[in-house]
Design a protein that fits this description.
It contains 15 helices and 16 strands. The longest helix has 30 residues. The termini are far apart. The structure holds iron/sulfur cluster (2 copies).
Amino acid sequence: MLNQEEGESFRDRVSTIDETGHRKWVFAYKPSGKFYRARTLLSIFYLFVFFGLPFVQYKGEPLLLLNIIERKFVIFGFVFWSQDFYLFGITMILFIVFIVVFSVAFGRLFCGWACPQTIFMEMVFRKIEYFIEGDAPKQMALKKAPWTDEKILKRGIKYFVFYIVSFLIGNTFLAYIIGKDALVKIMTEPFSQHVGGFTSMLIFSGVFFFIYIYLREQVCTVVCPYGRLQGVLLDKHSVVVAYDYLRGEPREKLHKNQQRNAGDCIDCLKCVHVCPTGIDIRNGTQLECTHCTACIDACDSIMDKINKPKGLIKYASEDTIAENKPFLITKRLKAYVVVLVILFVLFISILATRSTIDLQITKTSGQMYNETADGQVSNMFNFMMINKSHRNFDSLELKVEGGKGQIELVTGEKYVKIAKEGIYKSVFFIKMPSKSIQERKQKIKVELYHRGQLIEIEKTNFLAPIAE
Ligand code: SF4
Ligand code: SF4
């Protein structure tokens, strides 16, 4: 149902920008209620996870590392290098499909309950703000007030605490990228040795400080494209935070001792006042709504007070509200789930069959072949082995498939040793009896064994002096 005074004009712009294009600052009232309590508990868990993942180690590696500089990624013990980037791509696609499936079924559930931006804004910074400046009316009064000692003190403390928390968040993000050991070095070693590191720390902290002191809900309503996608993802079957207009309308203020013929909405605006994105959910689903559930809690408390059933604002689909239909698993939703399951199975099978050592072989440039006095042809190759595991390998052996040729390392050794996560580069010759060669360019396979166990196979070409 539309706000009668505004008509549909509120749809012309996001809720926090006025007709002249200026920012409307949102002073959200402090929410309370069962959803807010549940979100607070979940946030505590989430914050432990966020601040813990880069610092907790498993098999000598952090639980999560996204080192884009060295192109090394660790996800719950699995180490990925740049050679595994396709896996990272699949992970990203999986994540996006997962979010799409969720959005089709439950709208922006992810935003309200799991998005780091919402968690930090609503569960960390907004709580700090309530603690220092008080609830929304006090914050509004403080903003309008002249710069008295009290205002300077409150604002000073707030900015200081915001910066400290931003610094912690920024450094944790940095730990996700460079690892905790590198972060500790930046913090403990002389500044001159880590100018770049210190600069990154300041930039990261500054970005987060700017986001939470100024950008705030604009990240969800203007910057993040996800809200805008809701228009194509949602349909009338999607469960969203919705106002039950059939029950609520016509809205009318509550007057004592007056016979009431209107709907259950008493137009108290509590749901609007608590909204951190500044919208009126009674106007229907809007892109700004992050499904934070604050309006559900607010309205439920009002329904309690006026002895009406809770749920005037609730999780419901348009179908449920308009026609009282239960939640329906639509064909579109089923199709998305099938895609998600296929991707997931693909990902797991690739992960399970991924070799622990990546072998790369390239023909040494400028070298075609050599004919030896004992009737053999030899080709020279450069090779690189990347140990993607947490295990040391002490006797790796290279062989030509089917014993068609012999491999001789330039080091003269038979076996190669490679430490965990190590890289080994060297050169070898493949020798084949010239009588056995039929083609000028022959495809061969080089096998890598460790203690007799085949680990990896790599294809290459062997050149020989045969006329074509
Ligand atoms: S409309 Fe309700 S659920 Fe949506 S952002 Fe506002 S308070 Fe949160
Ligand atoms: S909180 Fe409930 S009763 Fe009050 S204005 Fe919002 S929908 Fe109406």
